[in-house]
Design brief:
There is one protein chain. This protein is α+β, with helices and mostly antiparallel strands. A five-stranded antiparallel β-sheet has the order 8-7-6-9-10. A three-stranded antiparallel β-sheet has the order 3-5-4. Strands 1-2 form a two-stranded antiparallel ribbon. It is elongated and about 50 Å long. The model is unreliable at about 1-5 and about 65-75 (pLDDT under 50). Strand 4 (about 40) and strand 5 (about 50) form a beta hairpin. It has helices at about 15-20, 25-35, 50-60, 70-75, 115-120, and strands at about 1-5, 5-10, 10-15, 40, 50, 80-95, 95-105, 105-115, 125-135, 135-140. The chain has two domains: about 1-60, Multidrug-efflux Transporter Regulator, Chain: A, Domain 2, CATH 1.10.1660; about 80-140, RNA polymerase II/Efflux pump adaptor protein, barrel-sandwich hybrid domain (OB fold (Dihydrolipoamide Acetyltransferase, E2P), Beta Barrel).
């Protein structure tokens, strides 16, 4: 999402882009649109565009459910406080990196080492998991 003049501008995705982000097939996305499981906007030509907020809402539910690849994407850990979201911003300064993740309409910030951010190749727009343990928030690249 982009901020302009103090308000957020909603990003709209084509169904194929949305399916790729959710890790599901294009026919599944179309069925979800038709069954009203996924909110979309229609263009004058009848094409569907899906708000990024809808994708973010469904990210956690689709991770690790259907494909073996996604099962491997989120590591099995004992911590239950795992929040799936999208990386908004990464600021690396010296030894530390600040990672901001949007989870639905909320944002969480984690301070991790710059080396970790580089090793995980974190980039804005990627899906990531914030793992919350006590007072620490760790980032897992999904």
């Amino acid at each position: 999402m982009e901020e302009r003049a103090g308000r957020r501008e909603q990003v709209l995705l084509r169904p194929r882009e949305a399916a790729l982000q959710l890790g599901i097939s294009f026919p599944t996305i179309k069925q979800w649109i038709y069954k009203k499981k996924l909110r979309s906007a229609q263009t004058p030509g009848g094409h569907h565009l899906i708000p990024q907020s809808e994708i973010d809402r469904l990210l956690f539910r689709t991770r690790g459910r259907t494909a073996g690849e996604r099962t491997q994407a989120i590591r099995r850990v004992s911590g239950r406080n795992q929040l799936v979201g999208r990386i908004d911003q990464i600021r690396i300064s010296g030894l530390m990196a600040e990672v901001k993740i949007s989870i639905g309409d909320q944002q969480i910030t984690s301070i991790i080492t710059a080396t970790s951010a580089r090793e995980m190749q974190l980039k804005p727009g990627q899906t990531a998991v914030a793992l919350i343990k006590a007072t620490e928030v760790m980032i897992l690249r999904a």
